[in-house]
Specification:
Elements lengths: L2 H15 L4 H70 L3 H6 L1 E8 L6 E3 H7 L1 H4 L9 E9 L5 E10 L2 E12 L2 E10 L7 H9 L1
Parallel strand pairs: 1-6
Antiparallel strand pairs: 1-2, 3-4, 4-5, 5-6
Length: about 210
Amino acid sequence: MPTAYGSIYQMFRLFRNFEIKPELYHYEQLMCRNEQAMIILNYTYLAFKTQTIMKKLLFSIFILTSIVISAQETENTEVNTFIDRWHQDAADVNREAYFDKIDEDGIFIGTDATEIWTKQEFYDWAEPQFTNGGRAWDFKAIDRNLYWGKKSNYVWFDELLTFSGGTLRGSGVLLKRKGGWKIMHYVLSLPVPNEKFGAVLKAMDE
C-alpha cells in the first residue's frame, strides 16, 4: 500500500478507537460552568461595591451641600438682621447705635445730588434729626437682595424701603471687620416709574 494511503488508514483507526470518557467531559463542563459562575459572581460583587460606593458618595455630597446651604442661610439671616437693626436705630432715634454700624471710612449718599458724605459729615448733618426731640426717619425694608463676595467677608445689597412718604431704594456694601459687620457704602435714591420720569425731571427744573 502506498505510504500516503497507509498514513490515512492509521489516522482512521486512531479516530475510530478514540473515546471521550464521560467523567472527563462532565468535569470539563462543570469547570466551565464554575468559571462562568465565578465571572458572574465577580461582576455582581463589583456592581454591588460600585453601587455602595456611589450611595456613600451621594450621601456625603448631600450632607456637605446641606451644611453649605445652612451656613449660607445663617449668614443671610445675620446680614439681614444687621441692616434691619440699622434702620430701626434711626426709627428709635438711637444716634450712637446708628452711626456705630457705619465704618470709619464709610460713605453715605442721600437723595439730593449734593449729599455725598463721609461718616463724620453725615453724623453732623443728621444731628438735628437725632437730638432735641428729633424724629430721624423710619425705613422698613419690603424687599432685599444680597450678593456675596468670594471670601464671604463682604456683601453688597439692594433694597426697597417703605416710609410715610412712599417708597425709596437703598443699595450698599458691607464689610466684615473683627468686631462685626460695618457699612462701607450706602446710597439712598428715589425710584421713579418710567412713564413719570419726564414729569419728574420737569418738576425738578422748576
